[in-house]
Amino acid sequence: MRILVLGRTGYLGAHVDDRLRALPGARVFDGGRSPGADFGIDLAADRPERLADVLAAAAPDAVVNCAGATGGDAVTLAEVNARGPAALCAALRQAAPAARLVHLGSAAEYGPGTPGTRVAESDTACPVTPYGATKLAGTVAVTACGLDGVVLRVGNPVGPGAPAGGLPGRITALLREAGTDPGAVLRLGDLSAHRDFVDVRDVARAVELAVTAPGPLPPVLNIGAGRAVPVRELVRGLAGRAGFRGRIEEEAAGSARSAQVSWQCSDITAAGEALGWHPVHGLGDSLAALWAATAPAGTRTP
């Protein structure tokens, strides 16, 4: 089986790529802008005709699109998250119409949730941020293209390798810097928002199952923990792992995104039915792996 992974250098992409390379009989190729990529692809800029030429050369049985932008201005987000998937679908129709497309979407596409309620794939998507809106546009491009495609709507990923630009990675870096100094103070925004944190390793396993599942799949599947926890719980869990002895101070004003979306929780029933998938890593396991992965060289345990 020939699998082309786009966005392998990203957080999710790296874990997905590693997972797929362990598949018996799989030949995995990387597509992206990095010089070391097997196939040079820029979803934000390449014309569909050029993408089709690259896809014809790669001859994939499956394409996994992990490429995406989580930050930047609205134009950048639209180029990568909306225009990219649309161009990819157009190229696939021309060069590899039988290939399965697994595209990573985001729970941000749903927008604000109702406290105490899990959101299902059939619920209306009402994103309130440019990120969520552009990811939703990418999802529409995939689900409307007529290909053998599935969008995995991923919750808030956490676990080893979390980037410093996201909350788990940023908090980890702050705790590493603070050490066990009892006088240390972490000043953070409002941590009361609830999020559905899903381990990045569970996301990678869901992608593997989506790539290898026989027959057509539902157009969209939620990939999360199916449980919403306060962001405060994640921060305190990391602080406990770090042996942090200082103070954590929350300011009344948090991020604009948290203020607009105070609750996110996904119903993951459909993923279980279609893929036989369910998360196996709890939040405590995810935080332990994240903390261990950032230990100074020479102090990490296997």
UniProtKB/TrEMBL annotation:
Pfam families: Epimerase. Signal peptide: none annotated. Residues 3-224 form the NAD-dependent epimerase/dehydratase domain. It comes from the Bacteria. PANTHER family: DTDP-D-GLUCOSE 4,6-DEHYDRATASE-RELATED. Belongs to the NAD(P)-dependent epimerase/dehydratase family. This is NAD-dependent epimerase/dehydratase family protein.
